[in-house]
Amino acid sequence: MTTENPSPGAAEAARPQPFADPGAPFTDLLPETRRELAHRVAVCQAEGRAPALVATVVRAGAPVWSGGVGELPAGAGPERVRFRIGSITKTLTAVLVLRLRDEGLIDLDQPIGRWLPAPHGSGATVAQLLSHTAGLAAEARGPWWERTPGELRPELPDIFGPEPARHPAGRRFHYSNPGYALLGALVERLRGEPWFAALRREVLEPLGMADTSYAAEEPAVCGWAVHPHADLRQPEPAVDTGRMAPAGQLWSTTRDLGRFAAFLLDGDPAVLAQESLAEMRAPAVPPEPGDWPTVYGLGLQLAREDGRTLVGHGGSMPGFLAGLWLDPEERTGVAVVANATSGPGVRALTRELLATLRRREPTFPAPWRPAAGADVEATRALLPLTGSWFWGTQGYVLALGARGAVSLRPAGAGGGRASAFRRLGESEWLGLDGYFAGERLTVHRAGDGRISHLDLGTFVFTREPYEPGAPVPGGADPAGWTA
């Protein structure tokens, strides 16, 4: 069976139903785009030999296409059928942890042992656990935890084997499922309620993710192990993983994952601010050798493809594969789920669907508009800062943004270090990205109030190269420029 819906959860509707932005333009897809999306989904299901596979595409906060292939429950749109989503659960857990930080209850750079009496890993910081750099073992102790009940590991000490640490904390990326069990326990301790209860109240309900559940609820599909060399299969167990649940327990639908994708793209003040989501998307450590295009942030994976950064997470549990990937530049997202332990290339399919949308229907840029309201006077006051500056002989251009923000970019094709800056006060800005992230840009004035130079992390920028009389470290040659 192949099913295609123009808008998840509303098969009878002619137009997509928005998640967050009722006025978003160009959310309807062209027929040829929809056909290519449906074809790619069908090919992935057939070649990957998945009993069922469903995908949903989101653009500008709205679902624009959903399709499903295979054995799907009758009477429900494919985007409303529950599949297990595996480690996408980790990203939801990470959002809960960032909420604790934003409320001032924890510090990401302090050891988790300050708030949770962890039997192992207590010296690792919360950020290290979020980014899989705590050095903890990849898997829980005992038999394969994803296929055995959580009762085998009832308390935190039970999830760790005889060698809980595999690497020194903070030194390298090493994916750790038990690390997220610790983060779930941290949420429970500080919220005074079970991890999933907090998740449902603080994240799922505000985002309208009513179809995301701890265990399977109808309509749902069975998870299957498909024989690699024959058209045969057997069901996989769907266990309650107990203490390991924050690492991979949840069931969801592509409709709900589409809502989560819209949130990860734009934020929601009721759940997490855009600034905190930006932290989650920032690389935490260098990639491992052999995996250079992919790095990990705080609960999110980042991948470089075709010159752009994609953000998301994959998931797998016995009988299930899932992927949720976003293209922030295009404001698009794709969720894919399948009920097979292995076979379908879910991660590749998410990238293909994003690429199809980008190639066939690229996002229109927001129209340029002049400054308005309070920004007009603020921008006029900062005009003397704009234009050409020099660090040594390297030319730069300083330009203004909204709300007093500035950017400093190399001039010409010679290269150099570029950064954007957020205003802190009358004469001070904070670097947001690039080489100068976290550094202070300070405007210095002469006695008559005229701007004399800029200081950026001890680098002095002047209006002319090695301007005479400017406080350039080491000074300028008294003879000036000579042949």
TrEMBL record:
It holds the Pfam family Beta-lactamase. SUPFAM superfamilies: beta-lactamase/transpeptidase-like. Residues 1-26 are annotated as: Disordered. Residues 41-353 form the Beta-lactamase-related domain. It comes from Streptomyces mimosae. Residues 380-463 form the DUF7586 domain. PANTHER family: D-ALANYL-D-ALANINE CARBOXYPEPTIDASE, D-ALANYL-D-ALANINE-CARBOXYPEPTIDASE/ENDOPEPTIDASE AMPH. GO terms for molecular function: hydrolase activity. Keywords: Hydrolase. This is Serine hydrolase. It comes from the Bacteria. The lineage of its organism: Bacteria, Bacillati, Actinomycetota, Actinomycetes, Kitasatosporales.
